[in-house]
Design brief:
Shape: globular
Radius of gyration: 13 Å
Oligomer: single chain
Order of helices and strands: HHH
Number of strands: 0
Strand content: under 5%
Distance between the termini: 37 Å
Number of helices: 3
Structural class: mainly alpha
């Protein structure tokens, strides 16, 4: 399992995808959302908003959210 380059916390797939999207698609070291936000000097909420936008655009770095079955 991958760990954050800065703090050592275990990472999610979304955090790995955001590091690749925001820093370098070929990255081999990754940041958690808190450390990535600090790196870019933006609020963590801004990264989650961008993540939602990237996912909606169909970016292949992020797994699509499962479709809801509202029957």
């Amino acid at each position: 399992m991958a760990a954050c380059r800065a703090c050592g916390r275990a990472l999610t797939g979304d955090e790995i995808g955001m590091t690749k999207k925001m820093i370098n698609r070929g990255a081999r070291e990754f940041f958690c959302m808190d450390c990535l936000a600090a790196y870019h000097r933006v609020p963590v909420e801004a990264l989650y908003k961008k993540l939602k936008e990237f996912r909606a655009m169909g970016c292949t770095l992020f797994a699509p959210l499962p479709e809801r079955d509202d029957r």
